[in-house]
Amino acid sequence: MSTRLRNAAKTAALGVAPLIVLALAWQGAANAGLIDSLQWASPWLVLLAFGMQFSDPQFWTDLAASLVRGAAGTAIGILIGTLGGLLLGASAMARELVLPTLDTAKAIPIFTWVPLLSIWAGSGEGGKVTFIAIAAALPALFSSAEGVISVPGTYLELTRQLCLPRLTVWRRAIFPGALPGVLRGVHLALLYGWLATIGAEYFFQSGAGIGGNIMGARELYALDLVGADMLVIGAIGMALDAASRALETYLLRWQGKTRQ
């Protein structure tokens, strides 16, 4: 096993160990009757419900609906946010005009948009996708803008001396220099978009989705199903985080070669 794999395995083990200890303590307390099983489903019951979910067709329907909804909203948010951020970062005048408004919008909790979005885009699928897109667009926009601003001035000065066309300047200097910021924005947008997907299913009109499934389980006081769905949500979030980190490492591998 390579050193990198050993370090990754060690990091993963250290991260999981506290969760295992907590789950064992929680299960022990449940077995001893120290906690109310009606309010705190034991880890064993949650694991059983987690396994049973996979044989339930409704679970797959809800999961597919959440994934499609989240992918659509997040993709729209990343596209709009990244393009807007690149343009914003390239124009000092645009930053002076727009950034104060965007900073104000960033300070407003995302769920306060729900009443307005329900009117503008409806309380069904349109409102949910729009909500997700806004949540994903903001981190993509700010990170992309910061990426452009962080491009070394020497790069731009060199392109001016060479009298390169504007498109070539973007392709050879600005975008490669801004790529770390763009990828960081995509990373955050994926995570925020997934969280917003579950939030949209809470706040807007109920329908198919993991969030709706949790709400239904809560109404039935099936806390084991609530816990099982939380595990699914967490697992998908972790997968998105790992995938985006791997993408960043792959696309930025040239940076390590440049430093050598």
By CATH reckoning, the class of the largest domain would read Mainly Alpha
* Euclidean distance between termini CA atoms: 25 Å
Number of helices: 11
- Seen as an oligomer or otherwise, the chain set is single chain
Characterize the overall form.
Answer: globular
Helix-strand category: mainly alpha
Q: What name is given to the CATH topology of the largest domain?
A: MetI-like fold
Largest sheet: none
CATH architecture of the largest domain: Orthogonal Bundle
Integer count of domains: 2
Round the Cα radius of gyration to an integer and report it. Answer: 23 Å
Q: What is the fourth-level CATH superfamily of the largest domain?
A: MetI-like
Helical content, roughly? Answer: over 70%
The number of distinct β-strands equals 0
Could you please describe the fold and organization of this structure?
This protein is mainly alpha-helical. The chain folds into two domains: 1-35; 57-259, MetI-like (MetI-like fold, Orthogonal Bundle), CATH 1.10.3720. It contains eleven helices and no strands. The protein has helices at 3-31, 43-53, 57-90, 92-107, 114-120, 125-149, 153-161, 166-203, 210-219, 223-251, 253-259. α3 packs parallel to α6. It starts with a helix and ends with a helix. The model has no long low-confidence stretch (mean pLDDT 81).
